């Protein structure tokens, strides 16, 4: 099989970036991580990429006249590197049609709640404040909205009495680190079919 080339977009700690890179190294995931895209030069994920010798495009949004301008530069890079799949992993910026139009169906995101509940920032804090007993993790295709695209996979995580954002986050992260590489593997194997809002994952 020809290598399947992915780009990971992240803005923060990058624990999901690391989980993907580890899965590749341990041969649980047959893809090649070709690029990190990061909008925060001081983010720990930049260090992680350097350590793993993964090329990074690190930019400051305010150096560009508009969102579209830096996205055009990103699209140029993605094309040059023949990227097959864009993986958003804690990328804290809304993306526009400049990126979505050429890559629709080939951009995925992970969100720390059971969508459509608690979209947007701090899905974990929102779930705690609401008092739900079960929250979780969603992996979905990206469309123009805020966490609104077709859902590929979800996993539930129970909320315990006395949970804080920290304790709940750490259990949610464990689930994310297992689920995201798994879903990327399904896509790599051509098992994920997108039809309108419905996504089917074919059995192996
Ligand atoms: C994750 O909880 C993910 O669901 C959300 O942003 C967080 C990123 O965490 N989109 P990390 O940077 O991968 O540690």
CATH topological fold name: Rossmann fold
Output the number of helix runs: 6
Number of domains: 1
In terms of DSSP E residues, the strand content is: 15-25%
Number of strands: 9
Residue-averaged pLDDT, rounded? 97
* N- to C-terminal distance: 16 Å
Order of helices and strands, N to C? EHEHEHEHEHEEHEE
Shape: globular
Which residues form runs of ≥5 with pLDDT under 50? none
Percent helix range: 25-40%
Describe the largest sheet.
7 strands, mixed
What is the name of the CATH superfamily? Formyl transferase, N-terminal domain
What would you report as the Rg, rounded to the nearest angstrom? 16 Å
By CATH, the architecture is named 3-Layer(aba) Sandwich
Supply the helix-strand structural class.
alpha/beta
